[in-house]
Amino acid sequence: MEFIDLKAISLLKVAEYENFTKAAKELCISQPAISNHIKAVEEELGFKIFERGTSGIHLTEKGTIVIKYISQMNSIAESLKQALASDKLSATALRVGITHTVESSLVVDAIAKYLNKSTPGVSIRITSGTSKSLYKQLKNGEIDFIIMEGSYNDPDLNNVMLGTDSLVLVTSPSNHLASKNTVTLDEMKEENLIMRLPDSNTMKTFASALKERSKSLSDFNIILEIDNIATIKDLIRRDFGVSILAKSVCLDEVRKGKLAILNIENISMVREMNLVYPKDFEHAEAIDGIVRCYNEL
Q1: Full-model pTM
Q2: CATH number of the domain that 252 lies in?
């Protein structure tokens, strides 16, 4: 049983791909059918949802509003289908968004530990992404809560601190800096840096710390920008460069002698890790349980 009709799904896919052909392929229907769906909805609403031009297909101002609410409706419909399909209607299926840094820390271990200790029937689906993309999903009802570095200044959300973490310089054990406890910014300028993407919280925090010292990212030799933390750590281990990463994501490799971590002189980059959830969230016991399990690790 489908709770959202195909016309609405067509709208979502065209908005996602900004391309009629790709949307049609995804839905296994013809492109003319997609076009007819869009036309029918636009005629019913009395305004254009998409602008079509030489630069491609883009949402109109009103179209953006339409897609926002259809996304929320689709998310609610998916949750309803999951609930109805469950063998036990009392089962709790939670959708959790975690940032890439958090994904590489002990947080996932804490979630697994919580599930092993919690009441039978509780399950969690984890989605990873940037804090910006996860915030959008949270507001649209596509996920139930977020675990991230930092917090949101949103009156509709609660922030519960899970713990703190700090950014450090990460090198291979064979790097000439590895024997030091602290490194200077001038010493870092001589290194090849392999960094997270510019919109990551890690890079934003580092850029902000540099600005306080009247410096900028352009002062450093950044040779690669990569989203995947595991890939960055592997490149560092093979001595292709150094990086700024959260201390928590490197501890296992440091214990095994595969990586070295150093503080940066006169720069403190301590961050909170928070669980962020709507004020009307119905499963506060899950938040308390994950925090408790994290503190036990």
Answers
A1: 0.61
A2: 3.40.190.10
Mean pLDDT, the chain, whole residue set: 88
Angstrom distance (rounded) from CA 275 to CA 145: 7
- For residue 102, being part of any structural domain is answered with yes
pLDDT at 265: 94
Helices 6-17 + 61-85 axis angle, to 10: 120
